[in-house]
């Protein structure tokens, strides 16, 4: 009985010393985020410690490590470092069920604890694009859907056409059966045309667990459309006696092959000089009888299209004359200039002749009703003698 009382006294003495030496001690931890399947490192530190034990426990309050002693049989959990100032452990191959609040305990009197929350990111699965059926006809409405599952938190989906982002899309988020991860999907609607043939449509999944390397799915579009046709001549000025090549440039999907050449609504009139080779019409030796409208027609399984070219064969001599100066035009311009000059001289002479005569001086003012200049001077104030002095002649 005496021994028991002595042991109790000794126990309380030790606790008092521990309590006295533990003033200012407190465990320090940090929250941890890890990708599913990765490794989480949990560290607990104490700046001042007088040989007091440290312990890590999981969200279920099960002890993982007590100092350097492993308490839970889980091969994924390993000791990294154990000292009086630090207890660090690692959890490998982390699963979503490992997420939660972990506790580091410092066994002072009273026990001091620090919490660290372990966040596990769910990695989204590789996206899949559905809704595409090849081929698609020009003008059809296309609806593509991109889906990915297993993301935590929910992933973001973006669409691109040849590296240009498309904003007008629909987005849907659904919780998975485990009630931890999400399945997200996005739908893209657009009406296709021939310019969409061969375009790469990309669905991109962005998520913080992917370390800035998004997952992508790609679909190359195949659009079928009617041909477009254009005739290209080998020379802009076909000349008599020279060859001419007319190329029928046709684009369509499926590719139209072969093409059909006609002249003025009928067959080519001279097969010996007019040879069809693939998409080219070769006229070996041009003459004036080749003038007319040539038609190239291309057909594929979607439809038919055509183009026309009006051929005018020029006289090489006339074309050569057009390259030098036009003497007739120059002569005509000179004749017009000379005629205008002569007319001007003639009109000026008549004007001067009609205005030759006598006019009143300032002294003859007031005689505007006289029939001529002489009469005006005579009728003016003064004598007949002074009238002669008041005349002024002007030529």
Please list the strands of the largest sheet in the order they lie side by side. 1-9-8-3-4-5
The coarse silhouette is: elongated
Gyration radius from CA atoms, angstroms: 53 Å
End-to-end separation? 168 Å
Mean of the pLDDT scores?
84
Which structural class do you get from the secondary structure elements? Answer: alpha+beta
Main pleated-sheet profile: 6 strands, mixed
Low-confidence stretches: 1-22, 358-367, 381-395
- Fraction of helical residues: 10-25%
Question: How many β-strands, per DSSP?
Answer: 27
User: Beta fraction of the residues?
Assistant: 35-45%
Specify the number of helices: 5
Q: What can you tell me about this protein's structure?
A:
The chain is of the alpha+beta class and 395 residues long. Helices cover 17% and strands 41% of the residues. The chain has 5 helices and 27 strands. The chain has helices at residues 2-21, 316-323, 327-354, 373-379, 384-389; strands spanning 32-35, 40-45, 54-57, 63-66, 69-70, 77-82, 86-91, 100-106, 112-121, 128-130, 136-137, 141-151, 156-161, 164-166, 170-175, 182-191, 200-206, 215-220, 223-233, 244-253, 259-263, 274-277, 280-283, 292-299, 304-311, 357-360, 391-394. It has a 6-stranded mixed beta sheet, with no helix packed on it. A hairpin with a 5-residue loop joins strand 8 and strand 9 (112-121). The longest helix is centred in the C-terminal third of the chain and has 28 residues, at 327-354. The chain is elongated and about 135 Å long. The relative contact order is 0.08. Mean pLDDT is 84; it is low at 1-22, 358-367 and 381-395.
């Amino acid at each position: 009985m005496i021994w028991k009382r002595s042991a109790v006294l000794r126990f309380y003495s030790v606790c008092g010393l521990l309590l006295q030496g533990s003033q200012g001690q407190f465990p320090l931890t940090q929250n941890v985020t890890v990708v599913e399947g990765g490794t989480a490192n949990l560290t607990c530190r104490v700046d001042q410690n007088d040989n007091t034990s440290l312990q890590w426990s999981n969200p279920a309050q099960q002890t993982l490590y007590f100092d350097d002693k492993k308490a839970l049989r889980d091969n994924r959990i390993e000791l990294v470092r154990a000292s009086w100032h630090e207890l660090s452990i690692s959890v490998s191959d982390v699963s979503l069920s490992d997420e939660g609040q972990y506790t580091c305990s410092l066994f002072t009197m009273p026990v001091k604890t620090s919490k660290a929350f372990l966040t596990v990111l769910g990695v989204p699965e590789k996206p899949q694009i559905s809704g595409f059926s090849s081929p698609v006809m020009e003008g059809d409405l296309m609806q593509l859907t991109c889906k990915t599952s297993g993301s935590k938190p929910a992933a973001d989906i973006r669409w691109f056409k040849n590296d240009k982002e498309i904003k007008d899309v629909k987005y849907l988020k659904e919780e998975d059966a485990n009630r931890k991860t999400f399945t997200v999907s996005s739908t893209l609607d657009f009406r296709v045309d021939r310019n969409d043939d061969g375009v790469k449509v990309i669905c991109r999944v962005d998520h913080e667990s992917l370390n800035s390397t998004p997952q992508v799915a790609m679909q190359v579009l195949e659009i079928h459309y009617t041909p477009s046709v254009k005739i290209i001549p080998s020379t802009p000025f076909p000349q008599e006696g020279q060859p001419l090549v007319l190329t029928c440039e046709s684009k369509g999907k499926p590719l139209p092959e072969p093409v059909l050449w006609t002249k003025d609504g009928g067959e080519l009139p001279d097969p010996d000089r007019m040879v069809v080779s693939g998409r080219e019409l070769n006229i070996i030796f041009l003459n004036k009888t080749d003038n007319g409208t040539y038609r190239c027609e291309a057909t594929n399984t979607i439809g038919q299209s055509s183009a026309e070219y009006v051929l005018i064969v020029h006289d090489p001599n006339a074309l050569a004359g057009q390259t030098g100066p036009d003497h007739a035009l120059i002569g005509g311009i000179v004749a017009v200039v000379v005629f205008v000059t002569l007319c001007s001289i003639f009109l000026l002479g008549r004007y001067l002749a009609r205005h030759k005569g006598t006019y009143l001086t300032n002294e003859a003012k007031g005689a505007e009703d006289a029939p001529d200049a002489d009469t005006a001077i005579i009728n003016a104030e003064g004598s007949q003698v002074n009238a002669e002095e008041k005349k002024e002649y002007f030529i």
